[in-house]
């Protein structure tokens, strides 16, 4: 059991590193690291292995990418598809959050919800309609 757990822990750490690498490639490392630090502060040491980091980091990265693509003039031809994907991800995230019963898990999601709402508020009124 100990060997299996150690193997799973290593895979989780590698997965988190991959998520953070993608985030740093797409966004400036300083921006991503600041947001990630805020998102991760509430998730520190709450589970074995700590999968809240993967959950919150990957969703934060996904949201930042989708929101950036949705306002990028170079991607105007893809805005409809991006909008559908963005609405789907946001809907699934909110539906999942509503089902979370653990207080520590809900706290870990606080910064994700703030990210989602803040990015939504920055979208023009025309796009929101």
UniProtKB/TrEMBL annotation:
<feature type="domain" description="Sec7/BIG1-like C-terminal">
    <location>
        <begin position="45"/>
        <end position="128"/>
    </location>
</feature>
<dbReference type="Pfam" id="PF20252">
    <property type="entry name" value="BIG2_C"/>
</dbReference>
<protein>
    <submittedName>
        <fullName>BIG2 protein</fullName>
    </submittedName>
</protein>
<dbReference type="InterPro" id="IPR046455">
    <property type="entry name" value="Sec7/BIG1-like_C"/>
</dbReference>
């Amino acid at each position: 059991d100990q060997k299996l757990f150690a193997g799973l822990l290593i895979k989780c750490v590698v997965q988190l590193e991959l998520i953070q690498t993608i985030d740093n490639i797409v966004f400036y490392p300083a921006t991503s690291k600041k947001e990630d630090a805020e998102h991760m502060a509430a998730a520190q040491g709450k589970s074995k292995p700590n999968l809240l980091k993967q959950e919150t980091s990957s969703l934060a990265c996904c949201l930042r990418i989708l929101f950036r693509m949705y306002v990028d003039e170079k991607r105007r031809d893809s805005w409809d598809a991006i909008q559908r994907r963005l609405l789907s991800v946001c809907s699934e995230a909110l539906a999942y959050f509503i089902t979370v019963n653990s207080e520590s898990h809900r706290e870990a999601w606080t910064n994700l919800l703030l990210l989602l709402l803040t990015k939504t508020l920055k979208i023009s009124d025309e796009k929101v309609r």
